[in-house]
Amino acid sequence: MVRPVVEILPGSRCYCLIAIVSTFPNLTPIEACVTVKWDDISNHTVHFRASEERRLFTLDGVFRNTNIIDLVRKIRFHMESGTSIGKDVKILRPIPKQKWELTKNKLTLKQQIGKGEFGEVYSGKLCEDPQKPTIDVAIKVIKLSEHNKEKVEQMHKEARLMRQYKHRNIVAFFGVVYSGNDSAMIVMELIHGGALNSYLKKNQELSNEVKSTYASDVAYALLYLHNKKCLHRPQYKFRDVACRNCLIDVQKQLVKLSDFGLSKQGDVYEVQKDEKTPVRW
Question: Which residues form the Protein kinase domain (predicted)?
Fold first, then answer.
């Protein structure tokens, strides 16, 4: 499902965005909408009309278009001519494709390295620029269906959060891929070393000094996130930053915080009196 993102765009007075609004395979048809941001107010201005199997799109309620291509042409006409839509609204500029909006042809999937909350996780390569070396990435893949709407929404939330944060102790986020109507992907930095909890179990001879550096890495990540008003996994029933939610780069001996699926933005999370909290992290 692709949702309008115009609400989070800073800056200029007016933006417009064509979005595909969703749908799951073989269940509901694809719909389109145009979102316009005007003086910090966002509105969906395309009217959708349906008569039996025929779909009509109109910007102004007068001229009706039968498909999305005609709609795009209509929008381009309004942009180039400066003609108003309706009484007062003019489309000044489109929202350009964002760097994090990736296409599938930039990715090469290799082998499955695990299963997560959203589906399978694969190692792979990302080619951001043909003139530069490819990047090792981890790719979360989820199949879209009527039965996993909640997980899809959670995946979108994780992507929206992660693209805001850049820190040496947080797993880097590269982008999202929408593969038609059947699957979606989150593309992240591949950490060679795996989950910290597994690494600690395999290397029980590690000194307390080394373990303290790992704890410091996580603390730096949390300090950064809290300064950004992000609470890491507060809805998780233990509300802890567990080793299983951290990855270790063995070569650099660097721990990075991962798994933003249940994180939220805010200043504080209030623990209810009847809820259990962890003593041991």
Answer: 107-281
